[in-house]
Amino acid sequence: MAGLQSLKQKARQLVLGNIAPARQVTLNQRRIYILPGIAGILWLLVAFLLFLMAVNYANSLAFAMSFFMVSLFMLAILHTWRNLAGLTIRSLGGDPAHVGQPVRVKLEIDGHNRERIAIKVGWPDHENLNVDTLDSTQIDLRITGQKRGWLSPGLLRIESLYPLGLCKTWSWLSLETGVLVYPAIDDRLPLPLSQNANGTQTGAIMLGQEEFAGVRRYQAGDSSGHVDWKGFARRHELNTKIFDQPVGLDCMLSLNDTPGHELEDKLPVLTAWCLRCERQKRPYGLSLPGVSISPGMGQRHLSECLQSLALFQVKSFQVESFQIQTDAEHA
Amino acid sequence: MPDTHQLEEGISRTSVIWLLVAQVMVLLPLRSVLPVPLLAIALLSVIWRLTLWYGRSFWPPLWLRAVLIVMALGTVVISFQPLLTLESMVSVLAVAYSLKLLEMRYRRDALVVVYIGFFVVTTSVLFSQSLLQAAWLVLCLVVLIAAQQGLYRRTDFLPVASSLRYGLVLVLQAVPLTVVLFILVPRLDPLWSVPQPDYSATTGVSDRMAPGDIARLSQSDELAFRAVFDGSLPPATERYWRMVVMDQFDGKSWYQSSTTDLASKGIAVTEWQQDQRQPADWWLQQPNGYRYEILLEATGFPWLVTMGPAAESQGRFLLLRTMRLEAGSRLYERQVYSVSGSSPVFTDDLPDWLRKLNLQLPRGNPQARRTARRWMLQAKGQPEQLAMRIMRFFQEQGFVYTLSPPLMAGESIDRFLFSEQQGFCAHYAGAFVFMMRSAGVPARVVSGYQGGELKPEQNMIQVRQFDAHAWAEIWVRGKGWVRYDPTTAIAPERISADLQTALGLEGGFLNEKPLSLLRYRQVPLLNQFRLFYENLEYRWQRTVIDYQREQQQALLKQWLGADQLQWRQTTLLVVVVLMVLGGSSLLLLYRRDKKDELSRLYSRFLGKLRRSGVQLQDGEGELSLARRIETEHPELSDAVWAFIREYIQCRYASHKTVEARQIKSLKIRLNSVR
């Protein structure tokens, strides 16, 4: 099944050519396809039956009716096509999320002052929305990122059957989402402790120095080991125990500390560690081949680390322009 | 507003209402065609769907739908004999259309409903193609299209006015192409024979006349035919439109001899009917000066109407010895035919078999027979004297002309003549012929129409069913068949004016049609409206409905010349269709964006500056450009500032859309920049 999908995707690429993805695409004649659907073929069949009736009864009004249906069919082609023609789709990005978590991609659809009705927008196999617009309209499309890096769910499909459903018009767009997908969170492993400068402390001592500071509402990504299970049994609230970490114990996270062989297994672990350090208010830095982020804390620091993890060794295009974009958003 | 609704294949509640309205509208013209139980089932379906809509009901289970289908089919089988008629097929279609409502859950079903709707609404034009029906058809189309487009709209949002407008706009946009196809697509001859509409329920002159039959026609204001004259119009007393000639009487009703009956009596078919190829030599002909075209509405019978006796066959029709025309088959469509009038001149006496045929009488009515023979003796054997005597009898005895005479059973002629003494034209004509025959004068009853409404602006006489009339013809040696209308003796206004006048206060005219405009001919405004509408209807029928193969050929020959007509027709069709399609796509798709217009003007402005040696620098806005020009090229400054100020005003200052007026003034400013 997956093979078939990728084959389809490849065929589309072949037909459409390798269009470089862009943040904004305006549909012109060359991008819009139109074909009569089953409803349209049935419509012509009804018109033909009426024609036969008109011939056999030599009935002028029946002739007129049959010709009217044919005319309307031709008109429907124009109207349906017009529904998409000149439409502009703009990606407004969206908040980053981890692999496996739903992402909302904000799209702006600009009809340029022409009424557009019932336009179906969406990536195949993901959420599709039905939009009416005159000027510009914003929609959120929910997608679950399957791979870290810039979210690219393939070609965006825009289609419309309006007004009469006789023809289906559609277009495939190569649209940059501008949404970053962080690696998944693998929170099964404790923080590495050998990163301290003197290197003498052990895990046990480290754990002992954690001081219980209270509880807060459970968040996705929290370690199951820190969940307040007793409290959950009593109050049915899922909370996470928070431990204060003594300041000054910087944690330098590196690929070398993670177990496993595959990069894609290691990155989720690092991601989880970053999140845990941030949660535990322990300064952390990141060291990857070619990337080095000095220890720090805070939302911006976390974003920077997660972005580095997301984009680490990802073949990508125009990454820099996105970085500017996302930085600007965070600022 | 972002739409958070998932695209679903269901039907919105508003769409359901649209479909129900469309359904009721589509079925309305068929109410007289469908048997009453089917109408009930259709109504039930609509009501059930409505209760579903209100959430007060459940989807009918399969068994219930099956029961309804069986009931509907049973009704069809019982109601229609023979089974395979146009009416029965339309009924099945209409009931399927109704019952489909009860399983209409998804858009797919709704689409089927709409498509059947398109089909059903077209079947209703097989029964009537009047202007009113056509207008209703257009209205149905608008609603059907509005319903169909509603299926594809966002499901929770379907405004009535905009949907209707959209339907109307689509219909109007489709009109040009429809007209082109209507005129140019070659008309074919019928491919196979189809069951024709049943005309038995419609009123019209029949070939069998019981005394009350014609009185029944006086209740109908339906159009019978129109006669458009080329040249002079006949005077009122000449407007006897002959249709059927009844020479046989069975004691109750008069009827026509059929060719097969005569053939079985050993009479050659050519003695009775002849066509163009073997012109009749039964009589001599002389032209009577009237040339006219008849537009006869479909009757379901083969006979045709002519003014006065037909002396020769016209066009493709048969001439019958009774001096009337007949088509080879029953007429299910309107007929248009020209008659160049000629009257027969009789030199020979009747052949014996024909004389015998026109003297046939059944037993009975002794008093009428005796009286006729007595008067014949008094008239010294002169048929015309006898006829005058009978007419005088009607006049002197105070006979009453009425639409509602008492029932005269048994010896009907005797009872009419000597005891009841009131009746309608059929009574008088029948009694008159009976008495003439009793006295040995060959005579027959002729039925058709008398009079009609004059339409001077079209040189036309329009005849309706209530103009139906019956009169008599007798054979006078040396003169031939002579027309006598006994009604003139009792109600001369019937002939000189019309039925309504003749009936006077006694009334009965169009009693069953209180809303018929024809009842109110005395009200000037209503009458004017009626005349206007009839005129419109006439033009509609002549231009659109009568546009068939022959008319198409004639028109195209006139336009394109006769040689290679088919090839030229095809070329013209393709070219015009492409032109209309191209035109509408340009109209639909080409839309000047006012903002784009501004950008175009600005780039033209920059082009002009470039030619004057000013280059736009990186990141230079409109204002900084103008300031730089002020210092570098002072001679351009004024015009540039004028343009830039207005441009900025259009581009950035106004939130509203840019108007054409602003673009125009901006262009003037641009032109002043050198």
From TrEMBL, chain A:
Segments spanning the bilayer are 32-55, 61-81
Organism listed in the record: Endozoicomonas lisbonensis
Top-level taxon in the UniProt lineage: Bacteria
- Is the keyword Transmembrane assigned to this protein? yes
Question: Membrane as a keyword?
Answer: yes
What is the protein's name according to its record? Uncharacterized protein (DUF58 family)
For this UniProt record, the keywords arranged alphabetically read as follows: Membrane, Transmembrane, Transmembrane helix
Automatic annotation (TrEMBL), chain B:
Please provide the record's keywords in A-Z order: Acyltransferase, Membrane, Transferase, Transmembrane, Transmembrane helix
Question: What is the top EC class of this enzyme, as a single word?
Answer: transferase
GO molecular function terms listed in the Swiss-Prot or TrEMBL record:
protein-glutamine gamma-glutamyltransferase activity
**Entry-linked SMART domains:** TGc
Q: Where is the Transglutaminase-like domain?
A: 417-488
Q: What is its EC number?
A: 2.3.2.13
Looking at the keywords, is rRNA processing present?
no
Task: Tell me the superkingdom of the source.
Answer: Bacteria
Residue ranges crossing the lipid bilayer per the database entry: 12-30, 36-55, 62-80, 110-128, 134-152, 164-185, 572-590
The name on file for this protein is: Transglutaminase-like putative cysteine protease
Query: Which species is this record about?
Result: Endozoicomonas lisbonensis
